[in-house]
Here is the input.
Amino acid sequence: MNSLDSRIVEFIEEHHVLTLATVKDNIPWCSNCFYAYHKEENIFVFTSDLDTRHAKEAMENESVAASIVLETSVVGKIQGLQISGRVYMPDGEFLKIANKRYMKRFPFAQLMKTNLWILEPARYKMTHNRLGFGKKLFWEK
Here is the structure.
């Protein structure tokens, strides 16, 4: 695996909501998800009920896209991360580990009945204007 730029990791760790994009019958759909990022595995853990549109679509087509953005109107501070990869539901021992990590970041989730999902990135493209206007950082698995 190519080394992941520490500036991408830092950006991911500074945020906690990603927009997940799924597709079915060539009709795209977006949803917003709280996530816990795990640097060692380079994965995102999020929760979603199985009856949501994005979960149903992900069960049929694991290929997804996602984004994380910094909201700002200052052009020199623009930062955003585009992600493509796959999603799946963890099982076995990995499910226990993912659950523990997610609940540590979002303890309130213990009160909800939901399902854990993993977003495993295959590619990142980060726009990072703090490094210069239009500066892009790339990573591919």
Remarks:
- The two ends are 5 Å apart (CA to CA).
- Helices lie at 6-14, 53-60, 92-105.
- The chain has three helices and seven strands.
- The chain has a mean pLDDT of 91.
